[in-house]
Structure formats: structure tokens, C-alpha cells
Write a structure and sequence with these properties.
Elements (H helix, E strand, L loop, with lengths): L3 H10 L6 H10 L4 E5 L9 H10 L3 E6 L3 H10 L3 E4 L19 H13 L3 E6 L3 H9 L4 E5 L1 H8 L4 H23 L3 E5 L7 H4 L5 E5 L2 H10 L1 H16 L1
Parallel strand pairs: 1-2, 2-3, 3-4, 4-5, 5-6, 6-7
Helix pairs in contact: 2-3, 2-11, 6-8, 7-8, 10-11
Length: 243
């Protein structure tokens, strides 16, 4: 469960509520298996103190999304969250756009992975469903990959359009193949970005994916049913569909 958007609302008024830590604790009670936050360089939502508090207060697992910027790496090495997911980051983007180019930036990424793993931090790399990027992640000694599902999710939304339907089908195939390859290489497989209560269903048939990281759609649904129910409904959907 990603609670970034709770912090986004708080930062809109630069006040102390709503508290993303409180949201995380509610999400845990509703069945969330881990809590995800993205500490951005511009601190547009999650703040350093949020990460520290989450590590101390939650009972599940804290997964810190972060760039490879030296400043952010320094924060992660100080706080030492159990898990880190390295993601690309651009100041002008609204949300993360696409996966890491591990092939291009392998030396830098591998160096950051090594520093994090020296502190016993589990490291995943956020990558597109591209076999070359998956293999590069393995060469960087990552523990896992989180497959970027954004293109699939966007085209699923417009699937009544013939072109989008075709792209959606192609992306789903790429995700399946990437997940299979990553698993065979010994990487744990996660998936995330743009997932909601509808488009997640086809992905639940991919046995290699052991973790889904979801935030915006749950927070949006929570406006109408409450956060506890929104998380519980997503968890039940995943559990029942996998059966």
C-alpha cells in the first residue's frame, strides 16, 4: 500500500494532517502486507520524518521508493528501511514515468545497490517489462524487480479503442514474459504503477508476481468508502481471484 497521496493532500496546505503514518496503520489493520512511500528529491509529499516514523511505528514492512541521487541515498543509509526500490525521477513529472534504464546507468545503479545491501537492505529495481533491463537488474545484484505496469494500465483504461486493446494485450504478454524471466534469474518479482480494482485482475494469473504495490486507486476509492474498506476490498479481490 502506497500512502504518498495522503502526504500530497497534507502538503497542499503545509499542515500536519492528514498523517500518512496514521493512514499506513489503518492500511495494515485492513490487511496491507507492506507500506510504500517515495521520498522525492523535491519533498513534494513524503518528508524525511515520515520515513523515520513509519519505520518505527508500522508492524509490516517499509518499502522506500527512491532515486539514486546522493542526498537521498544518504537518507536511506541513515534510516535503513528494510526494503528499498530504486526508481527514476524527474522534477517535472507528476508521477513516475517508466522504469529505470539499468543498461545505461548500470555502474551507478550497481554502486548504490551495493551500498544499500551493505546495510542489509533488500533492494528492488523499478523496470519496464523488458528482458534486457531484467537481466541488467540481475547483473546489478538486485534482490528483486518491480515491473512497471503503467503502459498496460493506461491502455486497459482505453481498451474499447482497437489500438489500445492491442497495446494492452501486448503489454500484458511482455509483463508475463518479464516476470517469468526474472523469476528464472532468481529475482523476486513485484509489479506496480497505475493498478486499480479492474486492471489488476489479469495480472493475478501471473504466478511469478508475489507483490503488487498500489496507491492512488485505493486512496481515490477511500474518499467514498473509507481507507479501511478500500484496502480491505483490494486485498480480498487479490485473495479471491488468486484462489
Amino acid at each position: 500500500m502506497n500512502v504518498d497521496h495522503v502526504a500530497t493532500l497534507r502538503q497542499a496546505r503545509r499542515t500536519y494532517f492528514p498523517d500518512p503514518v496514521k493512514a499506513a496503520l489503518i492500511a495494515e489493520k485492513a490487511g496491507a502486507d507492506s507500506i510504500v512511500v517515495h521520498l522525492r528529491e523535491d519533498r513534494r509529499h513524503i518528508q524525511d520524518e515520515d520515513v523515520s516514523r513509519l519505520k518505527k511505528e508500522i508492524r509490516t514492512v517499509l518499502n522506500l521508493e527512491m532515486s539514486t541521487a546522493p542526498e537521498i541515498v544518504k537518507v536511506a543509509l541513515h534510516i535503513q528501511p528494510p526494503r528499498v526500490c530504486l526508481v527514476p525521477e524527474r522534477r517535472e513529472e507528476v508521477t513516475t514515468e517508466g522504469g529505470l534504464n539499468v543498461l545505461r546507468d548500470m555502474a551507478k545503479i550497481k554502486s548504490v545497490v551495493e551500498k544499500l545491501k551493505e546495510r542489509n537492505i533488500f533492494v528492488s529495481l523499478f523496470v519496464d517489462p523488458d528482458k534486457k533491463q531484467i537481466n541488467a537488474a540481475r547483473l546489478c545484484n538486485a534482490d528483486a524487480v518491480e515491473i512497471h505496469t503503467g503502459v498496460y494500465a493506461e491502455n486497459f483504461k482505453h481498451r474499447r479503442n482497437i489500438s489500445s486493446k492491442k497495446t494492452c494485450k501486448e503489454e500484458l504478454h511482455k509483463i508475463k514474459e518479464a516476470a517469468k524471466m526474472a523469476h528464472e534469474l532468481g529475482l523476486e518479482v513485484h509489479a506496480g504503477h497505475g493498478l486499480d480494482y479492474e486492471n489488476i485482475v489479469p495480472l493475478l494469473s501471473i504466478p511469478e508476481i508475489v507483490e503488487f504495490n498500489i496507491g492512488f486507486s485505493i486512496i481515490a476509492h477511500a474518499l467514498f468508502v473509507g481507507l479501511y474498506n478500500a484496502v480491505k476490498q483490494m486485498k480480498e479481490l487479490i485473495r479471491e481471484t488468486k484462489k
